[in-house]
Amino acid sequence: QVQLVESGGGLVQAGGSLRLSCAVSGLTFSRYGMGWFRQTAGKEREFVAAISWSGGGTNHAPSVKGRFTISRDNTKNTVYLRMNSLKPEDTAVYYCAAESSGYGSSRQRYDYWGQGTQVTVSS
Questions:
Q1: 3-state secondary structure of 50
Q2: CA 34 distance to own-chain centroid
Q3: Taking the CB of residue 22, how many other CB atoms lie within 10 A of it?
Q4: 44-70 per-position pLDDT tens digit
Q5: If we measure between CA atoms, which residue out of 40, 34, 32, 41 comes closest to residue 63?
Q6: Mean pLDDT of 66-79
Q7: How many CB atoms lie within 10 A of CB 87?
Q8: Strands 10-13 and 117-122
Q9: Residue 35: CB partners within 8 Å, gap ≥ 6?
C-alpha cells in the first residue's frame, strides 16, 4: 500500500534550521507532484510548498518564501523541506502529500498523506 513517512521534526530555537524528509513507497514516486502542508490545533491545514514530479517546478507559500526550500530525490523516493530562519509561528505538525496531476497548493488536490511530524520553534 502507499506509505508516506515524515521525519526530521523536533524542537529548535528561533532562527534555527531543520530539514524534514518524507520517504514514499507504494507508488511511482517520479510520476507524482509532492507537497508539504502544516497544521496547528484549531486551524485548517495550510499549504507550505510543492514540487513537480521532475523537481523542475516549485511553489512556496508567501509566509515561507526565502526561508524554506522544497526539493526531491527521485532515486530515493524522498521529498525534503529545508527550513531556515525558523520562527515560533512555524510551529505546527508538518505533513507531506502526493498529487498525481500537478503540484498545487490546494490540499483537496492531494491523493495521499503522511502522518505528520511535529516541529516546535521556541522563542
A1: strand
A2: 8
A3: 25
A4: 999 999 999 999 999 999 999 999 999
A5: 40
A6: 98
A7: 14
A8: parallel
A9: 47, 48, 49, 50, 51, 96, 97, 98, 99, 103, 104, 105, 110
d(CA 35, CA 52): 9
pLDDT of residue 70: 98
- Region for residue 66 given its phi and psi (left: phi exceeds 0; alpha: psi -120 to 50; beta: otherwise): left
Task: Give the residue carrying C-alpha cell 496531476.
Answer: 101
Which amino acid is it at 44? Answer: E
Quick check: 20 and 6 in contact, CB under 8 A? Answer: yes
In 10 A of CB 36, how many CB atoms? Answer: 26
* Residue 49 contacts residue 37 (beta carbons within 8 Å): no
- Give dist(CA 20, CA 36) in Å, integer: 10
